[in-house]
Protein 1
Amino acid sequence: MSKATITVLPGDGVGPEVTAQALKVLRAVEEKCGHSFTVHKRRVGLDALAAEGVAISESTFETCAQSDAILFGAVGSLPAGEDRSGGPRPEQALFRLRKEFGFFANLRPVRPFEALYGASSLKPEHLKGADMIFVRELSAGLYYGRLESVPGKPSEIRRTQQGTEAVDTLLYTEEEIERVVRAAFEIALDRERKVTSVDKANVLSSSVLWREVVERVAADHPTVTYEHMLVDACAMRLIRTPSDFDVIVTENLFGDILTDEASMLTGSIGMLPSASLGTRRTAGGMFGLYEPIHGSAPDIAGQDKANPVGAILSAALLLRHSLGLAQEASAVEEAVEAAIREGYRTPDLDEDGRTVVGTEEMGRRILDRLRQP
Ligand code: IPM
Ligand code: MG
């Protein structure tokens, strides 16, 4: 039996709908396997800005800090016409959590289910054998100083005498590169032992340093094969021959963009989960933040249309990485695949001859499979 504390941050848009389904799955695992999960639900993003005046309050941050894991929904998308230029943005909550908890490695597994080949924009023959995991650097690079002006890392719009200009800073220390690249090589040891490091070394200094560090880390892992790939070439290879990839490690913004692209292999961005990890240990594994890679999707929020699979698979990653419950995690993943194999689909995966269901019912179908002995 395992005891754990989980903070749930549903957030904005479809966030509350999909995390509700993921939480039901965690409760079902708790009941079936005799574990004991204490759950704290808190506000984040626009929801917190409206109710508490900040994207994430100190007390919510503290609750997260005291937990074994954070289950996160989505934040963002200001209502149309609302101008908050210069004011606090909902995404700041996410950047703060990632930065202050040191979540530098963002794992995004991409494995298209065979039953969904028809829902992908790619021909099925290109999807065969595709099974990869992205290790996206998450706490440095172009995203920071988004938080606030970090000296030496400006991210701002400046009015000068010559006119208006804007700057963002892509800064990486050797240490920031090395820890995420090491994480990727270690993950590769448990997979096909192949790392693709993605950069733009023909243009960017940060990528030249990135390559140097990869060479050094690779030398410590003689059983792992590795390659360097330019990010533009990678974007192409991902949809030409996705089965070429095993572990892909890359800079923050490149990882953000490439994973939205890769999600199309699975049929929908609603399918992909993620785990953000650092170095802090819990009783069963690592402290982490778990979220689907999709956003708050305000256009479909509150309509029971969102795909809960990305959130549910994120809960599976939470079980595996933060609570050390690998069998339970696999059971959740198998339940998801079974429900899809049986033909249930949310509207984002609509195909002829399938049963289109809402967020709630999709969650219920997955729960049914999970509860089967
Ligand atoms: C993601 C999202 C976020 C990011 C947004 C919401 C700031 O796109 O997790 O991929 O860019 O990191
Ligand atoms: Mg993204």
Protein 2
Amino acid sequence: MPLKKKSTGKLISFEGSEGSGKSTQIARLAAHFQKAHREVVSTREPGGTEIGEQIRNIIVHNSKGDEMCAETELLLFAAARAQVVREVIAPALVRGAIVLSDRFLDSSTVYQGIARNLAADPVAQINRFAVGNVMPDLTIVIDVPTKVSLARLKRRASDLPDRMERENVDFYNKVRDGYLVLATSMPGRIIVVDGTKTEDVIEKKIWAAVQARLK
Ligand code: TMP
């Protein structure tokens, strides 16, 4: 399906390790835009559509999930992304909405490419195929040390950790470093905020960056 050209809509993606505080900050940023009378669409990856939520279930909760190879994982994330882009994100951008996405293509670059060690070229090609011409206008990486991220995960876990959450410290260190390297290589699109600050401080930093970058 060809994607229509964006109009005045903006896509802002949030990235970071588990427990970095993305959902809290997405809700806070949404409130700023709503106060300014902008339509806000919040979505998440994998998920955001019925098909995407089913794919999420296969990836993170499938009891056989431990046997899933990295290539399959990459393609499933990409499939969920292709769906949410065409079903939710592109139409919202055409309407002029602000779309806030909890994770987007950088998650695959970092988790599957860097942490799972899949070759960068196919990951980039598959990412491009999934998103079509829909790229984030701004990406906010909320950076927290692995120790903090894992401690937060432990505190909030109401039941058994899912398949991704069972990864070890080494994996999460690669994820964290991966995001920092990516941000350095794309300073025009990606900003990093310190996720160990208070929620209010982080909110202010993000809102200031959004206003400065997106005018
Ligand atoms: P979440 O719990 O932050 O919503 O993300 C689900 C898990 O999926 C999380 O461990 C990150 C992982 N993930 C990838 O490995 N690759 C991807 O492309 C996406 C979107 C998520």
